[in-house]
Amino acid sequence: MQEEYDRLWGEERPRVTNEVSEAAAQGDRSENAEYIYGKKRLREIDSRLEFLNRRLEEVAIVDPEDRGDGRAYFGAWVRVADESGEESRFQIVGPDEFDVEKGRISMDSPVGRALLGRQQGDEVRVRRPRGDVIFEILEVCYER
Questions:
Q1: What pLDDT was estimated at residue 61?
Q2: Are 66 and 80 in contact (CB under 8 A)?
């Protein structure tokens, strides 16, 4: 989130502001598509910056902690197998950190909620839009 904020504030917003200024200098703003689009984009950027600023003030960095009981808590990496034997590996993260391509799932997602508090050998049923799936937990670990 901090990287996105820095990019929007330091690169994107100044670039769009410059484009809007150049478009405004061309004259009639009411029919100037570049000016109208630029102002709209600036409002979007400012809205996103405001959202990110509020979130950054509220978030806290939590170091994943292995409590020694073998259960999946926030920050845990969980390896699972579905009914067909296909394995997947997920890290349970906060709602602002999820990245499915990297295997990072939100603790608020159906899979994340199902895995929290479970341990190796447990079976969990996950309700998904495309149908229920049963996962067997193969491993729970914590990595730095």
A1: 66
A2: no
